[in-house]
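YM 10:42: ATP-dependent Clp protease ATP-binding subunit ClpA sequence, as discussed on the call
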Amino acid sequence: MPSFSRSLEQALHRALALAGERRHEYATLEHLLLALVDDQDAAAVMRACNVELDVLRRNLVEYVDTELSNLTGDGRQDAKPTAGFQRVIQRAVIHVQSSGREEVTGANVLVAIFAERESHAAYFLQEQDMTRYDAVNYISHGIAKRPGTSESKPVRGAEEESAAERPSGEDGEARPKKKGDALEAYCVNLNKKARDGKIDPLIGRHAEVERTIQVLCRRQKNNPLLVGDPGVGKTAIAEGLARKIIQHEVPEVLADATVFSLDMGTLLAGTRYRGDFEERLKQVMKEIEAHPNAIMFIDEIHTVIGAGATSGGAMDASNLLKPALASGALRCIGSTTYKEYRQYFEKDRALVRRFQKIDVNEPSIPDTIEILKGLKPYFEEFHKLKYTTDAVKAAVELSARYINDRKLPDKAIDVIDETGASQMLVPEARRKRTIGVKEIETTIATMARIPPKTVSKDDAVVLKNLTENLKRVVYGQTNAIEALTSAIKLARAGLRDPDKPIGSYLFAGPTGVGKTEAAKQLAASLGVEMLRFDMSEYMERHTVSRLIGAPPGYVGFDQGGLLTDGIDQHPHCVLLLDEIEKAHPDLFNILLQVMDHGKLTDHNGKQVDFRNVIIIMTSNAGASDLAKSAYGFTQSKRSGDDVEAINRLFAPEFRNRLDAIISFGHLPKEVVAKVVDKFVLQLEAQLADRNVTIELSDEAREWLVENGYDDAMGARPMARLIQTTIKTPLADEVLFGRLKDGGAVKVVLKKPETEDGKASDAKSVSGLGFEFPDGPVTPKPEKDVTNAAKRHKRPKARATPRKKANKGDGGSSGGGSSGGGSVRTVPKVPLKV
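YM 10:58: structure's back
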């Protein structure tokens, strides 16, 4: 239930007292209105609606004294409110309650009086041309009937005038509000803000500031428009100009100027009815024009186009500003981005000609370093720490290199600010008092979503061991790995074009020899993301639009493309285009600008940076020719035929932009043995969760090497063979058989049995089988069988032939154990190097 304000309670008591003084038996609406003349809320509304309070008071006093004389009683009882009096109070309470407010004021009671149309109180108000709409319009929106007296704040008597300033007697005539209320309500005084030390200094930008001052000094069209990308410092120029004004660093023509920043949000807030917004804006413009040497700054000025426009109406804020902008009566500084300038401003040529465009370009790295050196003391004071000069330099250089979707100096300022903020999360005893390069690198890695070791300027350890790390996990492709790592080291050394990707490589060779695996392991070694696109999905012409987005006018044109969005989210990655020869030729044309200039523009005009991307394309071109035997006795395979196939398939301009065409050859038998060991290691890691260890005999290993590799298909059949001969039978044993509760198993060759049930001495085998140690064994799982770094440290297999196992010797090791028939609790997989 809403409560009465203190001033309204006093007015109600005063109305009853007026009736009691005249010995009236009832208190009427006229008594109430006479009391409301002295109520601060009701009086403010009536003054704004052009009501002469002294005339109203005389009329009410004359009416009460003459016309209500028949209400005189004996004076023994207090005056009682009439039914109309009570209805007005109830109506005011209901109105306040429905509007969600908690307090009933005299202004609400004044509005409720208009519902009593037959009363003399309503007649006296209407006699002075006051309507209910006028009162509601002023209470809700601060719009007065008297020109120039619009309220900028909600009606609440104490805000406009104190009771001490307004006598309770006859001199309560209407007075205009004090000058500058609209500016105070809807604008921010940047000079005052700068005087209070709330604006950082403007460093550099001498050409832009000088050009801005020059435009402001014109007689007509003295309106500079700052246009630039987000984050380059457009708003800082306007705020810096206000700071220079109070520090007397501007020409004498602007020495007394005051910069007001227009808040469009506040200007639009609460404008429910047509004309509210226009009234506020006109009042602001009038006060700006009346203010000596005033300059209005509108940030994001494109928002004024269409602001306040009603449906079907052409009158918006921009059209209201045009006359004043052209005449020179209103000096206005605007700021907007290139995108909004093209989208909104260029379409309104009448508005464009009233502004003088000033381009604000992104500062260079040296200029940004100077800007941050000037701002450094302010961040040091706020975060209570110090930044080294190297840290400031690293923040600029690393943000320019790794944060590609934003502009300097904004992103560099964010880096040093966030680095200082990160120390607030650390207990005070462990906080660093000086921020160095290492902390800056950590922040950059977090903001750019890349591993910290990639950001570090000292990543020599990773690059130094890159070749060996790749050889350890990609077998038999020494020449290809060395060519790949050499090109990457060349790029990291800074000896290649900085506007191109780190590398553009074409991996050519037969299937199943490690082309895709090399790309995966390269991404893992460098600690970056790998984005893989299967080019078999882009065989049709129209599917190319999936990579860069649909053209405008088509469904989904505003949703971006898979390739551009992927690189935008992971600017440092390995981009794998698998089986590139299957893609439509139009895709090659898209890749030309990527490989040459390191940039790609989607259909929305957004430019994506590829300068920190390693592009790897795989191809099976020429693999069928390589598989054919060569004529003569000197070569077993045709060499050079894959190059001829690549030349036939790819255009010269495409091949010319590749950094290298790296050929992958067939895998020799000793390399296939390493592939077998790798698959067994993976199986061993999977079985460790079931508390099962597995061992592979030398004979079984050789059998897998012979049967799991095909020159035409590479090592891919190996996985299928292991799944068929080992994993599938082993699944039954793990789920229902002897390995249900864990144990050890050895994979051996299974000899075909003769008719008498004995193993055949023939060399032929029927497949792989399992042997289990005698008795239940619960082995301990190995510590980390998946660690790739430990693979080369596993015990080497014996070069001497194995001794024939005794009957029942199912648990003997295939490695170098000294006990011929002993059972090993934790068997190891023998690996050949």
